[in-house]
Write a structure and sequence with these properties.
The structure holds two protein chains of two kinds. Chain A is mainly alpha-helical. Chain A contains twelve helices and no strands. Chain A starts with a helix and ends in a 6-residue tail after the last helix. Chain B is built from 13 helices and no strands. The chains are: A mainly alpha, B mainly alpha. Chains A and B meet through helix 2, helix 4, helix 5, helix 10 and helix 11 of A and helix 1, helix 2, helix 3, helix 6 and helix 7 of B.
Chain lengths: 269, 277
């Protein structure tokens, strides 16, 4: 019975969605895609296929690492702003304001060109174990993107921590939980539930920021497409494919986050 | 294909400066002294020719111009788009949904490149087809058009949400009074949605000021590119990027001040947010 109703529901939803004008629009879109596939030049694809895959992998890797590290940094930033004394809250606030008030491109260039040109003056840095890494571009890219994510997400976490009802925390303390346990079991999970819807948006924004690392010579998927454009003198084909790749990744991210969100009890607080 | 500055030449230096100069201790020492001594910094940042402060300020002015233009264009597109999404026919709605979805899913950098090449190409093809000469499109106009197109997608969503937040009775009352759609828009919808839209639009303005930096990648002359130029010539990378960051930050903080005023003005006559809670 329930199964039948579900099927009828699904059919009704599909027919609602697939109205006649939509079919026409989809056909037009298909026509555009097919004409792009047939009338544009794609003969460079086999040659750059492997490089492209490596580029996509690198972009995704940077996205994952900076999001995770940035979020780990955002938790103390949010906590300091939500509850900390002035001496904790003020620096966190200043950090978030500075990160959110300046373009990521400038932060990236300040770190890579600015710090990168200051480091070699100090012999102890040049002789340390970090030097082989500091001469490469990717640590600067990862650092800039991490700080940026932390700055934006720290502000979100501040609201999320402040939004958890006081009664919950008092109840946890009344149960005899230590401060740390109450934080770990009650406060943090509820704050993350609250921050999750914005986390989707922030992650997509972060994905859209990753191509900036190409300007400091990290070879991500954007840099690969620039190289194809240089080598083949084609303008549109690599850029269109690049846009398609980013749209696909965005779609996957949004879908994955919606699945995670669906698992979380929606009655909180 | 018009001859356009390429990303690789505009933005990718062959090697990191540090790697080059590490081989040359003398130059490094001079640079260190130059960028470390306070007098050197003041000299570098002074607004008159030996210093590069003037270049930076001109760049900042260009950035503000582009951001203002792009925000205005984005507001126009956004208002139209929101109206189309709310009151348009099914085809218009679907097309607008495609527009906002695509623009919000693709990185701004890629959109800027695509729109810049495609836009200048299309205009020139149209001009040659009509028998006119090809034109060089000014950086300012192209930057405003490209960023405005991107901003339009975001402001469509903000304004759509704000219009939906207006109590429906107000719009029905205006219709009952016999107002024409234009008058309704001007007298009721726009002023009534403003308090709901201002926070979102303010955010978009801040994003616009920061997104102007991306135009450096296609070679538009604005603050980020001016800074690169100054830093590249003087080799005082840290000083100049730091100065540019301070300028952007001041612009953001100043904007926040103005936005606070505008928000208070748009909410006049409404209960304050604190009391509403």
């Amino acid at each position: 019975m329930a199964n039948e109703a579900a099927i009828i529901n699904a059919v009704a939803r599909t027919s609602l969605w697939l109205q006649p004008h939509r079919i026409v629009l989809i056909l037009i879109a298909l026509g555009l895609v097919l004409s792009a596939a047939f009338f544009m030049r794609w003969d460079w694809l086999p040659q750059y296929y492997e490089m492209g895959l490596i580029g996509i992998w690198r972009s995704l890797w940077i996205l994952a690492v900076t999001c995770v590290l940035g979020f780990l940094l955002a938790v103390p930033l949010g906590l300091a702003q939500a509850t900390g004394s002035f001496w904790f809250a003020a620096p966190a606030k200043v950090f978030c304001t500075v990160i959110r008030g300046t373009p990521l491109l400038i932060q990236l260039w300040l770190l890579y060109y600015g710090l990168g040109s200051l480091f070699p003056q100090y012999p102890w840095i040049r002789e340390s174990w970090m030097w082989p890494y500091l001469r490469q571009a990717w640590p600067y890219g990862v650092l800039a993107l991490t700080l940026s994510f932390a700055g934006y997400e720290g502000e979100v976490m501040r609201g999320a921590f402040a939004g958890v009802p006081k009664g919950q925390l008092e109840a946890a303390r009344a149960f005899g939980m230590s401060r740390w346990k109450a934080f770990r079991r009650i406060w943090l999970p509820q704050a993350i539930y609250r921050a999750l819807p914005t986390l989707t948006g922030e992650t997509v924004l972060q994905l859209k920021s990753t191509p900036l690392v190409a300007t400091i010579s990290v070879i991500d998927i954007f840099a690969v497409s620039s190289k194809v454009r240089q080598d083949t003198y084609l303008t549109y084909e690599p850029l269109l494919l690049l846009a398609l790749i980013y749209m696909t990744i965005t779609g996957i991210l949004v879908f994955a986050f919606s699945r995670i969100e669906a698992r979380i009890p929606n009655k909180i607080g | 294909m018009p001859h356009l500055p390429d990303l690789s030449q505009a933005c990718l230096p062959p090697t990191q400066p540090s790697a080059v100069r590490a081989n040359n201790p003398g130059a490094t020492l001079i640079d260190a002294l130059l960028s470390a001594s306070a007098a050197g910094i003041i000299e570098l940042l002074s607004p008159y020719p030996p210093g590069w402060g003037g270049t930076l300020l001109v760049g900042l002015l260009h950035s503000i111009e582009i951001a203002l233009g792009a925000t205005c264009l984005g507001l126009l597109i956004g208002t139209g788009g929101a109206y189309g999404k709310l009151y348009g026919g099914p085809v218009v709605r679907d097309l607008l949904a495609v527009y906002t979805t695509i623009v919000r899913a693709v990185p701004e950098l890629v959109l800027i490149l695509l729109l810049y090449y495609a836009g200048t190409d299309l205009i020139n093809q149209a001009l040659t087809a009509m028998g006119y000469q090809r034109v060089d499109i000014s950086g300012l106009a192209a930057g405003i058009a490209v960023l405005g197109f991107v901003q339009g997608a975001y402001s469509t969503e903000v304004i759509r949400g704000a219009i939906l937040a207006i109590p429906q009775g107000q719009i029905e009352a205006a219709r009952a009074y016999g107002m024409s759609p234009g008058l309704l828009l001007r007298r009721i919808t726009l002023p009534a949605m403003l308090p709901f839209a201002i926070p979102g639009l303010a955010n978009l303005w801040l994003i616009a000021t920061k997104d102007t930096a991306l135009l450096a990648v296609v070679g538009f002359y604005e603050l980020a590119l001016a800074t690169r130029q100054a830093a590249g010539v003087t080799k005082a990378y840290f000083t100049f990027f730091f100065a540019a960051g301070v300028l952007y930050l001041l612009l953001s903080l100043f904007s926040n001040l103005i936005i606070g005023r505008i928000e208070a003005w748009s909410r006049r006559g409404m209960p304050s947010l604190k009391e509403a809670r």
